[in-house]
Batch of 4 targets.
Target 1
Amino acid sequence: MPSYTKTLKQDIALGRKNYFYLTLVMAITDFKVKYDNSVLGYLWSLLKPLLMFGTLYLVFSVFVRWEMENYKLYLLLGIILWNFFSEVTLNSMVLLEGKSMILKKVFFPRWIIVIASSLTSVMTLFLNMCVFFIFFSFSGISLHVKSLFLIICLMELYFLAVGWAFCLCALFPKFRDIHHIWEVFVQLGFWATPIIYPISIVHAKYHKFIFLNPIARIIQASREVIIGADTNFLVLSNHIYLVFVSVGLFFVGLSFYNRMSKSFAEDL
Amino acid sequence: MITLENVNKVFLLPHERKATLRQRFVSLSRKNIYEKLYALREVNLKVDKGEFLGIIGKNGSGKSTLLKLIAKVLEPTSGKIIVRGNVAPFLELGVGFQGDLTVKDNIFLYGALLGMSRREIADKYDWIIDFARLERFVDAKLKNLSSGMQVRLGFSITVAIESPILLVDEVLAVGDIDFQQKCYGSFGGFKKDGRTIVFVSHDLNAVEQFCDRVVLLENGEIKSQGGTGKVVDEYWKSIKST
């Protein structure tokens, strides 16, 4: 039996079934504390990607000109989704370190920290998507029924990001370097993924390398669902691959994390 | 209720701690030198339901490690620990508090951390505020409260939990005398409710007053256990003889 089910059963046997509420409270607290003492408060979670979008849009739409329809939306959606991925993976480690005092004193299943941190990012993602759809409504494109597939894409992205966050957090207390290493990889990944450039400018022989990265596939699929006319990434086989990878990574990450988290109180 | 069988807890004391990858790589060739520190050695202990157990011993004798093992914060190196029932840890009061949030938010956060549901906390909310005597400070930020007030709040929330097992680790020394009296008063209540309490303290008066049975730890081993008077006397003797 994989260890995650075992610990969950033990937890329930202990009579503590309020983990859902704890996760929620932790996420809300995290969100509140993050924007406390700042004048603009929650607006920052919107302003950050918008400022990034503004800068990149200026450079790549005015100075360098990609020949591309709806480049604005293409870029904005790419940035939002990538930011979500990088936020989930990086913040979970920050939160884990921040909670080290609690970990040493109170028992609760350690996965709550990672899930709570991811929920904070989900709130940010939700706000960002609202902004995206405001831009979208000015663009004159209309939504199709197929746009509902966006939800599936976002779910794939969520499981992938959280699964990876579990893996990183499992190693983090023993190897603090992993935070710095991953920061560099997030930067690399940003440029290795077709976020600011259209995939058409990359030579076709490199495509298969770019799309080894499941994030690139998810981002492309999300764009096709909402903006594009292409359907290369909407094919079923692609999503079978994505669901398999993301859900697989989630459970592998969770059980790895659960195993490693037993010594967190000593390592952190 | 709580059973410990042959429990060992070993901490490895590295003489050269390797926290980063580089340090690990550099010293791969060299052998790691660890010293084994037995925080607990072959501990067998049984605490029955409704029992008030005291644990005494000098600093570093393993008292806190024992409580942390029961609270499941630490994993034993070997041996078995069985705990039946929800555990409310008083290991350190207010450890999950967020200074930037209000007292009210902190009650919900800390309560959730200790395993309460939203409804339970809401039901107990007025009682907690009243017990901590913080009516005027409900909407103040926690960081602006004095440390004594924070401890009172932490204690009140923990007391409000209806868990059958309480672990108390030398936490009452911080409050003022009034509050200490109140805390000791609530201990009497716990006893009446039939809750199981494991109480770690250097305050031998309190131990003698409340505990049914006392365990004396020395260097991670149970040196003696039994009736309160007998074990406390033995502890006094061991202090005097050294």
Target 2
Amino acid sequence: MKLLIKQGHIIDPANSIDGVHDIYIANGKIVAIGKKPDGFKATKTIDATDQIVIPGIVDLCTRLREPGQEYKGTIASETAAAAAGGITTVCVPPDTDPCIDTTAVAELIHQRATAAANCHVVTQAALTLGLDGEFLSEMATLKTQAHCVGVSNGLKPVENILVMRRAMEYAASCDMTVFLHAEDPGLSNNGCAHEGVMSTRLGLPAIPESAETAAVSRDLMLIEQTGVRAHFSHISSANALQMIAQAKQQGLPVSVDVSIHHLHLTDLDIGFFDSNCHVIPPLRSQRDKQGLQQGVKQNSIDALCSDHQPHCADAKLAPFSATEPGISGLETLLPLSLRLVDENILDLKALIQKLTVEPAKILGIDAGHLSVNTTADICIYNPATNWTVNAENFVSTGHNTPFADWELQGKVTHTLLDGKIVYQS
Amino acid sequence: MKQTDIQFDQNGLLRHFLTIDGLKRNVLVDILDTAENFATVGTQQVKKVPLLRGKTIVNLFFESSTRTRTTFELAAKRLSADVLNINIDTSSTSKGESLLDMLRNLEAMHCDMFVVRHHQSGAAHFIAQHVSPHISVINAGDGQHAHPTQAMLDMFTIRRHKQDFTKLRVAVIGDIMHSRVARSEIHALNTLGVPEIRVIAPNTLIPPATDSMGVHVYHDMEQGLKDVDVVMMLRLQRERMQGALLPSEHEYFETYGLTSEKLKLAKVDAIVMHPGPINRGVEIESAVADGPQSVILEQVTNGIAIRMAVMSMTLGRQTATEGKAT
């Protein structure tokens, strides 16, 4: 099959392309941009006039819920949701059930993702066996045999600092990136909302900012000592970000992402107990939101992510603290990110970079760019389409979103995976 | 906006009573005035008015309570409603039944009102959001969030002794952090125009953003009690010694317990209040609890009138609007 994407405005930060060109695709690969290759005869043409063409989005943290919680979502359903969001690679954290501490689980996920053929799926291996924070997982095996792209302990903090040190040392010798969820469980104390004005008014068990900063500070010291490459996932507080940015400036091998909802919402959005705003880490103060936006602007945040956590309706139908945290975020990641450009926080090129080539770099994979002779993973969106978020129309089985009724601009029209159209609106 | 509106029906009448937060002054005064009318019912020979005859009220208590449940029950009975008391062992949630399932089952029994006490903040809001349109919900205490009828009976008691809220200095003393009573009292006092509200406790019992609720924070009883008109004590839960919030009951009583000696710092005619049950010798000395300035038992009596007022306003509303329609 030979595909021509005609007259789209291509933005590919990795190759410094920003202009209207044609893209020629053959056998799943980009064969030329701009100039038509000799003898190319398109079997299908996508007219991308007035559309934006970008590399397929790479999402650093996506829960597909399979294996273990298929009632919330499956590899097939959630990768289809990724495709609808213009995402062509997702990274799955290890907290499936069973967790990814054996090659069998990783292989199962990869096989089913390949069968679904909606989106590339890469996996993180468990840092500790069973994510219990006691024994090391077989990281080297999980890397070489199951192709896990990094190690992480999911949302479960490793309480024993000695175990954390050893795990980092071992990961460093395996040349694996450690993905960190910064939370001190003693300080977060089973809380469910940011310690601030709202938790005080609503009487909700609170998670102080120090639950994040204390963990970041501990982990930074261990990163410095062990030399491991580390990535902080979904940082929520301005102070924690500042600590990481400083460490990065001093040459520590660290990177950081922020989930898109932390750039748009604060604890005030909880209102009177809106369980769709129950997320971990919690939505923080206005000051934190501004600090994170500033971080995006000043480039101290490397990537943006959906932190996709689909739930069935029941999970959110209870008093706030008894609900399960998380947002179904794949299908709103791109338009919510584009809103940052509208708000003059960063320019479109810098934004696309944080959604494509930067997260790919963090995962150590070859993706997120539109180079000739590489796999044609492409997202085409209409920047002018205005639409209102209605979870009922989500492809994801998770309808849990705090963005319902938000008016967003920009909608994916086509997603191409390996040169095949996997989504078309 | 739509979220605070949940307490009102489409005609702007009080349908649920979940929190004081967001209610206007006239609504609170309305409740106090209505309660004033009911205050004499208990002293009559026939302690009943026929306002809610034929209505069924369910006391849905997920957390044990004697005082609150009893006064709600009495209030309902004095309004001639039928009352069903359901005490739900918290372990039934471990049996797998969700709160919503339980609610649907009770709704199927054709009840008109749920009076809810639950250990999780937001439970009353959650229930109010999911009940059928004809059912009213009254919050009888949800987690650490709100206990609006307790706050209103406290306001009622204060008004009977002090008349003008706008000239008062009020101190709330004790475990603000875990107290739904304190949160509701602070909202009510602010809404009724009390110019100076103080909270007195160690930092471990005060949430960091407390000043955002419009109060002044004190750590010292001597300073905090000076010249106040109303002293509101809070109950100290024994389990606060765990979790490193306090060293001991002894030290707490020494620093924050209300003694006759410390009470002298307040105005001579200051009243002493406590939502009960009292821990004598922990947060309050017996001599003060039983002393001439204490209005603690009056609070209990007033609780019935306030609950009658809230029940009749929320449930009576339906009869009133139905009447209008015909």
Target 3
Amino acid sequence: MNFREYKVGARMFGICLGGSMCITLLMPSYDFRSATSTDMALRKQLSAGWETGWNVQDPLMLGHNKPLTVTVKVDPKTGAALPAPITVFVYDKGVHMPNAADHPDNLGASVEKLSLDKGHIGEFDAATGAVYTIDHDNGVPYIENLTATKSWTPDEVMSKASDGDVAHVGAGKTMFVREGCWWCHTLLPEETQDWQVFGAPPYLGDFNGESPTAFGSDRKAPDLLHVGSRNSSREWMMLHFFNPRLVQPHSIMPRFDYLWGEKDAKGNKIDYDKWRAEYTEYREGKRENPPEVPSYAPNSDIRALIDFMLSLK
Amino acid sequence: MLKYLFAKSEDIPSGSAAVFFGFSSILWFVVGTGLGSFNAAKLAFPDFVTGNEWFAFGHMRQVHVLAVIFGWISMAFAMAMMYITPILGNTRLWSEKLGIWNALLWNIGLSLGLTLLWGGLTSGREYSDFIWPIDLYIAFFMALPLAINVWMTILARRVQGIYTTNWFFGAGVFMVIIVFLTGNLPEFFHLTGLSEAYLTWWFAHNVLGLWITPVAAAIAYFTIPKVTGNPLYSHRIGHLHFWSVVVFYSTPAAHHLMSAPLPEWLKSFASVEGVLILVPAIAFVSNILLTMQGKWYMFVESLEIRFTITGVLLAIPLNMQGGFQQTRAINWYIHGTGWIVAHAHLALLGFSTFLEAAAVYLGLQSLMKRKLYSLTLGNMHFWMLLIGFSIYWISMTIAGLIQGAGKIYEVPYIDVVIAEHPYMIARWLGGTLVFASNIIWLYNMWMTARVGTVIPAGRMPHELAYER
């Protein structure tokens, strides 16, 4: 054990590496903690849910146990029409509560105080689930737990909502992560001329509570952080996902037709081989029009993914 | 190899673990570059093998990256450590049995992790894509046994000092465990938001800076003096290299997120520290090249020296790019473009791979005591690897500059895609050449093990390279 002569070196090594980790990990962590959630952060956190990477609640990454984004037009208690529709985030029983419910300190001081005092986010019962919305107080956003403040339950909200009012954003972000969309599409407009094309670059507090952030690093395709503001056409998204060359002949995006699953919206089996054969004929000029893209089933993966895309405002 | 799993330690031939790691690493190199070539084909021809989840680009891209990093590069490192550390300590590997178990557990864990990733089970964090149970497996069943073996071999050495290579090995295996456990904290403790994003890139930076770069350099510190017979030019410059890696290379993680809303002080600090990466880089390159004094003919004649020196020469553009491309003045133009992809391949496929390939060539021949089966195939491997890599690097650099121009001049994105198309084809051709060269290498090494000429005791394989 001839180690003694390296005692000084080993201590120097510890000081160097420890010092480096102190500056690069400990010091920034105070800055990150003091970041105050913006509207965008609250929206992303509540719509995507606790975690959209791999986690034990959704071990096969099928988009299970994720919150729903619901547009509420009538009061679910009384049935009276609301003055204006509001967006709520429904966490049914069994769905992991958002990060802010367990760790409100991650919201940033002012948002945390409002969310706790006026929004009652601390008062949730995982056994019944909760309904959240985003409210404002003098321009400061905060999370309101409607189950605590108005005793709206997930079941009541869902019973008054039609399928068109519901967006599977949490499941859709899971698809975004699982299918590796972020290997080519970034979620981070840069502070160069990007903001004119892809929208505003994000601020310090735009990510609080989000996991994974999936910024992406290798932009082989347009940035998507604000794609829902540029293009809100569900029809275009559907064609583009099924075969991007239908709407953009030069696109190098892969086809995501397999996300349609076995059956289309009417419950008929989708014949992929026939579709591809007809598409090949179209591309070779033997057909005037490409084959019709099958409409997706309401519980298909692609529906969730398109819901997520359109939620990226 | 598997018959030694339950054998008594003294019955296991010295070097078995290193040979196991060596052949595994070549196999993973073939797999990794094969996936890379396949992925590149999909970027050039998007309808190539389509409509199947298991062959979708988004499912395969990360498998390529991690197969190459944890299969090829890291297993070649393990091979080099198990071969070189005992030699430099004038002793045997501390536990040959632990080494064989380590190689087996490494292959099992990596196969499992990559299969899950391929199926889409990912943490969604670049470079730390593995899900957290696999992360823990990697730290405690792949990295830790290797570290124990390296440390114990160094402690059990029968020489007075510790040579430069072994400082890096001993520190590298320590740092990779720390980096792994720290970088995956967001998954273990569900850290979110910017903490998650920043730690993702803290990991990505440091797994390169504190594991791949120093350990690859350490291999060159062994190969060049060993094969040329020259002593290392300067022990002190080696010190400068070692300490500046620990101090400077561990700090600039934030420069990967220059366009993200991190605190400004952190970005400025990272940028300055990033330029200081040139200190260890220049120390390393000058030390190695000066060690070659009087032996430059070996750059032509010796396969191992040719591989090593090519890798060291590629470290010059690598660090010139790396030091300056992360400053704000340059980063705003090239961030997120193919330039970065080219740079990453310059680091891993250029600089690092060439150094490790030399170690695997030299180590497998020495340990199996068999001369390389065919020097011609070895030369073919070298040139196909170098030409394939060069095509890849040049085409992706050009593609990146096109993308950068498209970005700042607000060119509609699809026009950038169209302009990049020829370079995507070139990239695929370059990658395929690399893949083909590795199949040749695997064949050559396999035949070396089977029918290579036996090396007489006391002689080095490179001394016999031209003898029939």
Target 4
Amino acid sequence: MKHYRIIVMLLFSIQSFSSDKIIITGSSTIAPMLSDIAKQYESSNADIRIDIQTGGSSRGITDARKELSQIGMVSRELKPTEEDLQKFTIAKDGIALIVNENNSVKAISFENIRNIFLGKIKNWKELGGHDQPIVIVNKAEGRSTLELFLKFFELKNSDIKADIIIGDNEQGIKTISKNKYAVGYVSVGTAEYNQSVGVPIKLLPMKGIKATVQNVANGSYPLSRELNLVTKMKPVGQIKLFIDYAQSEKVNELIRDHYFVPILFK
Amino acid sequence: MYQYFLNRRDLYIKILLGASGFICSLCVILIFLFLLKESFLVITGQELSLFFQKSWFPLEGQFNLIPILIASVLLTFGSIFLALPLGLLTAILERFFLKGLFKIIFRRIIEIYTGIPSVIFGFWGLMKLVPFINDFHPPGQSLLSGILILSLMIFPIISLNIMASVEMSPKHFYRVSESLGISRATYIWKILLPSLKGQIFSSSLLAIGRALGETMAVLMVCGNIVQVPGHLFDPVRSLTANIALEMSYATGEHRSALFLSGLVLFLLTLFLYMLSSFAEVERNE
């Protein structure tokens, strides 16, 4: 019996001695990627535990401000009223409008893209293309790509007249590569990769800027956003180490796995 | 001493059997309770208004599952409508019209069908079948392509079941009808198939279960638009695809509504199996 007690006490003491726990809350766009980064970080730093919870960018801001969390995740640029927080950009996210390679349309204006998705433009003929109906490929609800797309084009999802709804980026690319008259949007990283390996898709420029990973990284491509971590104070100790790690080149692979663009892109 | 030993072994076996039976039954009940608990939020939050909303826009607080439910039922019954004749015909072909090596090869081909993972069917459908249908009527991803892919996936279940039951059906029927000079066709249609009614019914039910639960292939070829289809070329979303598409990014009421899709699917399957057991009881009487 004595042994038992000692073992139990030991277990408890290990539990309480095990050092820092970092709590991170906020955007569900960043959470899956950051939890992969955290796992990789934990495997090389055994004495730290990182707990990631979602709840949207605004929760990320509020929690960080009230110090309910040590780090907040915010998948947009900070508003002027939020400048009191420390901001650390870890990656960028961009969306490319894609069509089939055989589609003769070279570019579509902002207003026309809106009208296509609202069902006001129904035929490629109206945009100078073939006389064929436009097949609209939209994303499933809850996807961050959809959210960014809707916000950029000031649309409501219930107003979009979609013909096909897809889940992940790859499914969208397969669909559009096989359907000559479809139009859809996927993350720039995935689209560029697929095009480079010969999948018959075409990335359309947005407001005259070419959709490339390079342009997303340098900030000139308009349909993109920052993925940020925020803290209330200037980070110190373990928290600083983790943020530095999340901004380092060691996580570039993980960031690309989630179809985002690393900020250290060269 | 020996007697005692045997009894103890019997006891062990009894315990083992009892335990496995108990665990299996418990799991189904636990899954049901889990679905109920997870979908509780949306059921209490929305109550009956749930089924009168415009459509399915979870981020705008609309969770109407009716079009999705209808799509699932249409897909399932559409595919069984094609798969049942196909399964019956292939089974009869194998049993009565093929000999020797051809018979073996044909049987293996049908068996291979059941082993192909559904994602392969979906992938093939997306790359070949959908563009083909798209040439006739865009967008290609449609109720029709879903039904075609599903029937291809479920007909081997019916086919193999019928083959096995023909094999086991009493041989003297066949001998008697041969000695009476009845043609083979008459024997098959008038004597054999009526005697296999029960097996045909139960294997169709198995196939329906598979079609109803199929996720990946349906997700890839059906287009996933939430609507009650007006015709075969309209894209639809099934209950299973609904869950698979949105679960990984859903929170709060949205997540709960997806569990409700699961619950509806569970109840639908339960309903079908209860229907079949009633039919069975009636037949036995």
